[in-house]
């Protein structure tokens, strides 16, 4: 039931993410500059929503908190039909981003409880469904964009709002996960004092910039600096999504301990170094050679993505005290929010402005993060909160 809720939810997310920029510019009538600023500012709201909602889920119940966050997202998504000014746009997208971060954190205790002995594997299964839902929603949004009328754009955002409502109904039918007892008042906001966990959050967050490589940096690089055919942009997206759908669960096998997760992060860093090096070689290659190189690099990059994602699942849940899973996963998600905020300017500077040398620099950054991961994981294991096994 939880998986079905996530599948429906991500169909709506695929609709919204694919069509949001054009909805706000072509339907709501906002200039591109205002939309860019608003979406950038709204991403920072995730820093606030995740931790607070995670703690609420730990104390009051994950199912109940998650249901409320989904309903809130549905209401805010429906309100987008009234956006016609920068102020209403900014308020709406900030509220939506806040609720989305809260939703992610609120479901953390449910995933840990319902995932049995290996919640990371269950989370990997849910991520496979995420990619399926995003692909379906993205395809529907593409049809809306092709029609390009005000009514179809309104149908897009209202369809997104409807999926939140359906997801909330499905989540309400999931068995209740009883909150774990709080050991005491001294543990309030313990996550923000857990320096090793915060260090892992930062490390993984910086590595999460890799998500923007295939969807932001690579398309600009292909079009502006290489002889690769334009259809490769769609082929890259399809290849990446397909591999994530079919291989995410398999990739998570064997990553059932923090130590294994640290090693997976190291492999991911090396894979990202290899893929960025291949992308750097593209200028000057004949079209067909460039196409083969791009597809090979995409497969290598996706392998790194699968390892990194599986490692993140294990670390975020496995190192969290049982009574504070929501709070801890809310903090861990802040790394992803951080990556969303910094990835466009960082990748734009390295991969587009600097060109070929910048791709190598980016790969070395990813490799360094991966090599640092195992010792940071060991540090985190040695410094778990003393009440974790209570």
SSE blueprint and pairings:
Layout: H1 2-27, H2 32-43, H3 46-60, H4 62-79, H5 86-106, H6 108-114, H7 119-147, H8 150-171, H9 195-207, H10 211-225, H11 232-252, H12 258-280, H13 287-318, H14 325-353, H15 356-382
Please give a structural write-up.
The model has no long low-confidence stretch (mean pLDDT 87). The longest helix is centred in the C-terminal third of the chain and has 32 residues, at 287-318. The protein starts with a helix and ends in an 8-residue tail after the last helix. The chain has helices at residues 2-27, 32-43, 46-60, 62-79, 86-106, 108-114, 119-147, 150-171, 195-207, 211-225, 232-252, 258-280, 287-318, 325-353, 356-382. The protein has two domains: 2-176, MFS general substrate transporter like domains (Growth Hormone, Chain: A), CATH 1.20.1250.20; 190-382, Growth Hormone, Chain: A (Up-down Bundle), CATH 1.20.1250. By secondary structure, it is mainly alpha-helical. 79% of the residues lie in helices and 0% in strands.
Summarize this entry quickly:
The protein is mostly helical. The chain has two domains: 2-176, Up-down Bundle (Growth Hormone, Chain: A); 190-382, Up-down Bundle (Growth Hormone, Chain: A), CATH 1.20.1250.20. The chain is 79% helix and 0% strand.
Instruction: Work out the count of structural domains.
Output: 2
Oligomer state equals: single chain
Distance between the termini: 30 Å
What is the CATH class of the largest domain? Mainly Alpha
Please trace the helix and strand order, writing H or E for each element: HHHHHHHHHHHHHHH
As a percent range, the share of helical residues equals over 70%
Q: Would you identify the regions where 5 or more consecutive residues have pLDDT less than 50?
A: none
Shape: globular
Q: Which architecture of the largest domain per CATH?
A: Up-down Bundle
| Backbone CA Rg | 21 Å
Number of helices: 15
| CATH superfamily annotation of the largest domain | MFS general substrate transporter like domains
